[in-house]
Write a structure and sequence with these properties.
By secondary structure, this protein is α+β, with helices and mostly antiparallel strands. Helices cover 46% and strands 18% of the residues. Helix 1 packs antiparallel against helix 2. It starts with a strand and ends in an 8-residue tail after the last helix. The mean pLDDT is 82.
Length: 97
Amino acid sequence: MIVPTDDGPRVGVVRRGARSYSRGVPTPTKQAPPPLQVDTARVVLAGIALWAVALVVVLLLGDRVDRMWTWTCVAAIGLGVLGLGVMRLQGQLGRRD
């Protein structure tokens, strides 16, 4: 149970039994704004596309670039595809029927 204190700024105190633990987190004074509606699939696809462009640039540069950057791009594309798969399993992707 969080009980507000009257001394100083509004800081909650948690009381458990005979002990009380002070928290340094102030209680909110106004409501949080509603969450934004974001098309996360579009954001992930844009990230995959940017990493694909970076992969093409790295491959065109050839030996002038460290091999690590090639694998970084490949890993980022793979993680993006994996993220899309997870989003599909969770039902976050729109179904096209």
